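User: What would this chain look like folded?
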Amino acid sequence: MPLPTIPFDVESMSADESLRRAREFHAHLHRRRTVREFSDRPIPDGVLEECLLAAGTAPSGAHKQPWRFIVVRDQTVKSQIRIAAEKEEHDNYDWRMSEAWKRDLEPLGTDEHKPFLDIAPALIVVMALKHGDAGPEALHYYVHESVGIASGMLLAALHTAGLATLTHTPSPMNFLQKVLGRPPHERPILLIPVGYPAEHCQVPDLHRKSLGEIAVWM
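Assistant: Here's the prediction, encoded as structure tokens.
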């Protein structure tokens, strides 16, 4: 049975206004950087909630919304996550990663040590739901694509709120299910430390690909 419908109106604006907003949004996101040096300054009440609600507006296959965001602020749980993540990262750097992969990471200065997992005031674990909470019969579709879109919108929302983030993917990530006590149909795909950069935080001077490198016009 079709869903009931409601009127939809796109905000009307001039060509100049449309271009101005597009340029401002690009400039805003261009300032976003991955941060590995966090302050323990607390995040104001309500900010994470609104950012998560913004992420929840993402489109999804058959509108199943196959995501769940686990917000971790408890210091003991954060420390448990750090210990488990560093164990996986040690194995990655020790024998899982190829030499080419490690060479590509070398300019970014990453290693197995992840103190930001203890320091950042919040960790957001993005879960992909293989099916609904009711059971395997509650089918989900295009789960990875849907959760990927929601994750991107979450990062944009957090940046817009003045927060710094890190997209951390210690692989394998199954330890997060155990530490957080989550059911088997929730699969962790992203661990995002969130907060404010440390006072003297430094980030790599990255140069992003040009429009000609990322887009093809036909």
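Residues 67 and 147 are 6 Å apart (CA to CA). If you want, I can go into more detail on any region.
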